[in-house]
Each structure stands twice: as C-alpha cells, then as structure tokens.
Design brief:
homodimer; 153 residues; alpha+beta; 3-stranded mixed sheet; globular; DNA-binding
DNA sequence: GCCAAATATGAAAGTGAATTTCATTAACGA
DNA sequence: TCGTTAATGAAATTCACTTTCATATTTGGC
C-alpha cells in the first residue's frame, strides 16, 4: 500500500514535468488555471469527460470556465499525458496515459463502470491480422461491453 | 461469382423478411419510404452514415426527408438487420448485420477505408478476459487504426 | 520591477450531427 | 369506405463540443 502510494506520487510528478516541458517547448504559458486543472486531472478517476472535470473543479474554482477545461484537456492529450477515448455515449473522455502501456476496457452497460485490462496475446494477434492485410497499426481500440460482476448480483 | 450473387440475393430477401416481421410484430406500418430506404441500404456500402444514405436516396427520391432516413435506420438497428457503429469521426454509421457473425474493423486513417475481419482466437481471448473479471460480454468493439496497404505506397 | 508583445481566459456565440416537434398525410383493419 | 393510429417532412431544438472576441495574464527584455 505504501509503495503504491509512493509510485503514484512519482508518476504524478513525472507527468507534471512532461506537461510543463511541453508547454515551455511550445512557447506557451504556465497559468494558475492550467496548474489547477492538471492537479484535478491527475487526482481524478481514470476516465473523465470535460463536463466531469469542469463540475469537479467548479466546487473549489468557480471562476474556471468550461472552455478553459476543454482547451487544457486537449493540451494534455497533445502533450502525451492523456488520451481521448469515446465509449459511444456521446461524451469524449480523457484517460491517463501510462508510459509505454496500452490498455483496453470492459465497460459495464448497467452501471457505467470501466475496468481496464491488458492482454499481450490479443495485441500480438491484432498485429498478425493487420500484417495479413498489409496494414500498419497506429492505434487500436478494444472494448468489451456487458454486465460487470457487481451488477450481476 | 454466380453463387456469391445468388447468396446475396437470398440474404437480402431474408433481411427484408426480418424487417417486415419486425414492423408487423410492433404494430408499425409498411410504407413506401421504408421500402425504398431498405432497398437502398441493402444495396449499399457496408458502412453508411445517415447523411450518406440520405444523399444517395435524394437522387431518385428527393421527397424523402433526412428525419425519415434517420428514423428508419434506427428501426433497422432495432430489428437486428443493422448495427450502429462509430469510428470517432463524429458520424454514426450503420453496418449490415449478418446472422451470427461478428466482425471487427481495420480503419485507414489516411483514406478512410474500412476493412472487415474476423478472428476466432481473439474472440476467445476476449471471453477469457471477461470471465476473469466476472464480466458477461454483450457486445464488443475492436478497431485497428492505421495505414492501409494502398496508402502505404 | 516595469513594459511591450504574445498568449490565455471566460462568456457568449457558433457548429454540426442527432433528435424531437408538429401539422399534414398515409396505412391498416373493421 | 371510414376512423384510428402511425408515418412523414420541414423546421426547431438539443447536445457536446468548438470558436470568437474583448479583457486579463504571463513572460522576456530593459
């Protein structure tokens, strides 16, 4: 438990650095809002929509506008610390990107819970399929929709 | 070639029957528009957006409105002869559903081409993953995004 | 620290696709 | 054929972004 916590802190710090470097590199500016939004994002659920984050922020920072949250999340994605995902419910969500890791999702159609998983073998088979069509994979998306363990009870 | 054609005709006929039965069963009505839209859909590309189909229809049937195409495609999905899919480009597409078959997609990010494929082993692995989380799969979505063979040249 | 130039912000307006409304029209079944 | 019920098409509305624009901040150079 303790080690997990320490790793978490280090990961957050690393992401803040990545984002900060990105901002500097692009000639953009560090602002109070971006810092606040980054903190909120890093300490949030792993799959936040713009609306989710905006509402969460509004409690302590009512002056931060929706457009700023929207633009900042885009920047997170551009800098590599976040990724846009869509589960077909009409909302774009942003998930945390862990260095070098790609995971897929189990989405509960009953309660909306999202479980992440990784499977090497599936990834390998995907590459084989792509190869057989002369196709070069850039990204992929694998989602399993259904009923989660909790909702089955 | 000839056999493929015959199968195609039979499949179309079967789907028309499925849709017609669905309509009857629900106490809905058969209309000229629904027939026309169904014909157009069945003889179309496998991945049509509402807009695509609406424009295609407008040539010969300029009186059919966008809303009718929209509503009819929804009915196709409800009846089981079509399925809604989204490739993240902001348009909902409708693809043909073949009895008992589920396929996945290779989506070219360069030219937009969509290639379908099936892979038993991947499906099996998906079930295993779901099982290990006590999750019951209802549907799934697997898309590989990248550059197709044509665009690589 | 102060200034000028460049970027960021928030409120509001604009977009584009999907969805709904409503007056009118067309099917179905007795 | 008639009456009831559903379908249609045009237009309005909704929804989730996305952009605009006037104002405010940040930053690099004195």
């Amino acid at each position: 438990m303790k080690i997990t916590f320490i790793i978490e802190v280090l990961v957050k710090r690393a992401k803040k650095k990545i984002f900060h470097d990105f901002i500097t590199h692009k000639g953009l500016k560090t602002t109070r809002q971006r810092d606040v939004i980054l903190d909120a994002f890093l300490s949030s659920d792993r799959h936040m929509s713009i609306e989710d984050l905006y509402l969460k922020l509004r409690v302590k920072h009512p002056r931060i506008g929706y457009a700023t949250v929207y633009r900042t999340l885009k920047l997170f994605a551009e800098s590599g610390i976040a990724r846009e995902i869509q589960f077909g419910d009409g909302q774009t969500r942003y998930e945390h990107v862990a260095e070098g890791e790609h995971h897929d999702h189990l989405v509960c159609t009953h309660c909306g819970a999202i479980i992440e998983f990784e499977n090497e073998t599936i990834e390998k088979l995907q590459s084989e399929v792509a190869d057989s069509y002369g196709f070069i994979i850039e990204t992929h998306k694998l989602e399993l929709y259904g009923i989660c363990a909790k909702c089955r009870k």
